Amino acid sequence: MMQALFQEKLHVLNVGLASFAESIARAGGAALQIEWAPPAQGQQNVARALAQLVNLPSVEAANRTAFDLYQSAQPILRDIGIAREVLPDMGTRMILHGGPPIAWQNMCGPMKGAIIGAILYEGWAKDTAGAAALASSGDIAFEPCHHHTAVGPMAGAISPSMPVWMVVDTTHNRPSFSNFNEGLGKALRFGANGPDVINRLRWMGQTLAPTLRAGLEILGGIDLKPLMAQALHMGDEVHNRNVAASSLFLKRLIVALLKTRAPSADIAAAVDFVAGNDHFFLNLSMAACKAMLDAAHGVPDSSMVTAMARNGVEFGIRVSGTGERWFTAPAPIVDGLFFPGYTTADAAPDLGDSAITETAGVGGFAMAAAPAIVKFVGGAPQDAIDNTMAMTHITIGRNEAFTLPPMNFAGSPAGIDIRKVVDTGILPIINTGIAHREAGVGQIGAGITRAPLACFTQAVSALAEGVCGKR
């Protein structure tokens, strides 16, 4: 047998330096180059921490628990409230923002613009100069939306008197919240704060929110998870594409609105506003994903990611088994398609809480269900499928509630595992909007980015220290 073996043509699998394979090829041999890199880009201390966590029974059991909690969550849209009245620990002189914690002086242009707009909306200052001075004075507290069970896209600004969606995970009796979507163009979430923006926000608070709330009272709530699942079957990925989800939401609501005692003019204006904004459901998708992931947060020893968020300066993640700690790295610039007249040089770094959708297994992780999204973020339809497939290598399982038609109705990959990210080097994909780096210009494109590896290496080291410290 050995003699026969040596008579066969030699096939070489080369791992590592490509020059070894090239030498074999020059000698007439066949060599297949295997793409491989050491975990954590060769950081030995991180690799040792990773080795302590791989196949560790306590971590595997914790991840099963966390993933089951995530999957069993049932987010229901129950009501609309005022931020200061319903958000946990929301102060009267506090403004919430997207991403991990950041001080005013370190904020990016769009976030500063949104903060100034929120101050004007609250009536705490008469003009932008006064609002900027107040923001820098220390008299206003700035905290992440995530610290108050809330999420907000892009700048994520939520001030005390703004209306918010009130979502409840009825399985675990946990709330989550999000602000309202203003539509595209010049909007507060992109840092715009002109009179038209403030007037729209006031109309949303005074007319839109009470009108929609009356409809919700008739319905008794809306189950968001089945609606999202149906939207995935209709070509959405419920992050950058919400055409179907927004239409399904309006379809449920419009009959109820007609049964309310709200003025007909207000109903017409509300329906017109929602129907004219294909992104309207985004904020509800985010709140639903927040509720599902909060159910999985706080499981000791779990390596499952429960939040990814960006503030335009830093990208941050939170992990179920490491408590309330953020692991941060510089926020990347998004690679995508730009509106005419704009380039990468005009773009702000990645911004907002909307990556909560990817964290929950939709958005970029469910791109296979939304091949048309590539017309918005760049690429080809096959890229959408490839991106979803790649995420199966860094996730704990599949969410069978969110099935993907192009994948033979397989569940969306979900439950990002920090160990698998560091081990494989495959980074979570996010499709997102691109904001101009200056306040008030607005959205200038959309594209794809990836979470920085440094967030995950930090998290692996911290989890290993915590797990091994108990042994």
Explain how this protein is built:
This protein is of the alpha+beta class and 471 residues long. The protein has 17 helices and 18 strands. The strands form 6 sheets. The chain has a 5-stranded mixed beta sheet with strand order 6-8-7-3-9. The protein has a 4-stranded antiparallel beta sheet with strand order 12-11-10-14. A hairpin with a 7-residue loop joins β11 and β12. α6 (109-122) crosses α8 (195-219) and α8 crosses α10 (243-258). The chain is globular. The mean pLDDT is 92.
Task: Please identify, by name, the CATH architecture of the largest domain.
Answer: Alpha-Beta Complex
Tally of helical runs:
17
Helix content: 25-40%
What's the CATH superfamily of the largest domain, by name? Enterococcus faecalis V583 domain
At the third CATH level, what is the topology name of the largest domain? Enterococcus faecalis V583 fold
Can you give me a brief rundown of this structure?
The protein is 40% helix and 21% strand. The chain has 471 residues and is of the alpha+beta class.
Which helices and strands occur, and which strands form pairs?
Layout: H1 2-7, E1 11-15, H2 18-26, E2 30-34, H3 44-53, H4 57-72, E3 75-82, H5 83-86, E4 94-97, H6 109-122, H7 128-136, E5 141-144, E6 150-151, E7 163-169, E8 174-178, H8 195-219, E9 222-223, H9 224-232, H10 243-258, H11 264-275, H12 282-296, E10 305-311, E11 314-319, E12 327-330, E13 335-338, E14 351-352, H13 356-359, H14 374-377, H15 381-391, E15 395-404, E16 410-416, H16 418-424, E17 429-435, E18 443-450, H17 453-469
Parallel strand pairs: 1-2, 4-5, 6-8
Antiparallel strand pairs: 3-7, 3-9, 7-8, 10-11, 10-14, 11-12, 13-18, 15-16, 17-18
